[in-house]
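COURSE: Structural Biology Practicum
ASSIGNMENT: Worksheet 4, Part C
STUDENT ID: 0417
INSTRUCTIONS: Below are two proteins. For each, the amino acid sequence is given first, followed by its structure token string. Answer the questions at the end about the second protein only.

PROTEIN I
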Amino acid sequence: MTAQDSATGHRTIAVDADPTGAKSARGGVLLAGLGVVAFSLTFPSTVWGLESFGPWSLVALRSLLAALIAGCALLAGRVPLPARRHWGGLAVVAGGVVVGFPLLTTLALQTSTSSHAAVVVGLLPLTTALLAALRTGSRPPRAFWIAALAGAAVVIAFTVQQSGGALSGGDLYLFGALLVCAAGYTEGGRLAKVMPGWQVIGWALVLCLPLAVAGAAVALPFEPVHLTAHGVAGLVWVAGGSTFLGLYVWYRGMAEIGVPRASQLQLAQPLLTLVWSFLALGEKVSAAAPVAAVAVLVCIAATQRSGGRAGGGTAARPGGGQGPRS
């Protein structure tokens, strides 16, 4: 028998190059989507919370309760302290999504309706995608940006239509909230590739605990408290639902599918908030809302398809494995 002879013929074996990739992407979209649903309840819940607490007290108590939940979870899991190189990023997350965004939006909601605030903050997906591209070097395809800009244009047009062509005084707070929140999302999404998502928001909340305690101690004596069922329910949701659980699934989803792609799911958030504002607060919803909703959903579908072709967002460890997940 010569070296060229062989008793076994050539066979083609089908191998799935990435058997878990599609499932991981679907799971990431689902997790990020659950985060969007949680966030969409934030403004109506904040309006409820303002029935019982002043704006500064509400923000301080929100951060305090969320930090206590996070601290208990970290202690129960015996989670070690993050590496020193991660504390700067955690500080950005804390300043953006734990302090900056809640404070600025709460101040805005003293003069703006929940539905109006929601549509202004509808620019957050595009802002987050832009900051993520600058910070992480991500390069979504052109189709992604076209769909993202189209979605932002729909939100802007809907905002102008809702406000009668003029911006309110609270919009300055809302535009500031856009920038700090986008920075917190971008940095949190980056950190969620190297540590579990719940630990990212957990340590960011713990980092803010001294500030929350001091803020509550100063604000509560000066702002009257009138406890109502709505007020307490609103506080509990913004602390446990929006700030801890919502950010947990959000960062975990971003680690799976990437910050730019996940951010575009938030195009649906203003429209969801309009629904909750109508159901919980009795705010009027424009007849243009269903049209805007359909247009936004089309844009979301386009960003998800183009984002999927650009590649997933999971981090890769040396050796080809995926980074740690929550």
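PROTEIN II
(use this one for the questions)
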Amino acid sequence: MTDPARIDVHQHLVPPDRSRAMADRATVLGWPAPAWDVQSAIAMKDRRSIATGLLSFPAPVAARDAPAAARDGARSVNEYTAEVVKDRPDRIGHFAVLPLPDVEAALEEAAHALDELNADGLMVLSNVHGTYLGDPAFDPLWAELDSRGAVVLVHPTAPPVTPIPGLPSPLVDFPYDTARTALHLALNGVPGRYPRIKMILPHAGGFLPYAAHRFAVAARLHPDSTPEGLLSELRRFYFDTAISAGPAALPSLLAFAAPGHVLYGSDFPMLPEEWATGFDTGLDDYPHWEPEQLHAVNRGNAELLIPRLARP
């Protein structure tokens, strides 16, 4: 049976002033342009038994060489999202976007979003114009977010490689980039040095669960690391189920993820609703759930990350 109270940690919005830019980006990525408004998002939640969706803006807010535009863009997106949340805080939450690679601006925006806008967490892209998240330049940001025990959604974006014609980047390249940045973070010890950050990897971590033991061999190239230690770092991540509850991916995810570290995700509206029903069914019909495990994935694990959503 479908859980009527899902918490969707991977849901998006498209502010009206960014709809044209998002449509243009979708064309470049070889993907359908997303359409979004509050009413249709609420209706989708009702059809799919989603009690609350945590919204994020899943694209760069400005070009690499436009730091002022990135600051202004992040502030605009975050304030718009906060206003959307105000009307229905029971149905809508908020992961604020940050204007990276400007770390000082990102620190300022994180404080504004968490302290003034009551954001439930933050969102960063898997690479920042080609720089991956384990780069030491980002350490001041991780230190601050660790001090706050922040929830951080690491949303995939296109990697700095030439796309293959006819193979949409969101389907083929995004999982690769998620796994790439997760391994980069782990090899640089970020999860272990900042253990109070709860980092969520969308789409079951890309290729990470399936290839984790292969990736762990990379530790042998680093004298201060071991495969066992690297696997431990990788298992600190949380994972969502968006586009990933298939009969091959779901068992791999559940075999790898630490207990309590799997969360429900829809990726609406980036994944059109009519394309997603099979993945919801894959969760509902999976035959090997332990008692209460499906409810934990649908809701319970997210309640622990975001206590305001906990039901009595």
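ANSWER KEY EXCERPT:
Q1: The mean pLDDT is 94.
Q2: The beta strands are 6-12, 50-56, 92-97, 121-125, 127-128, 131-132, 151-155, 198-201, 238-240, 262-263.
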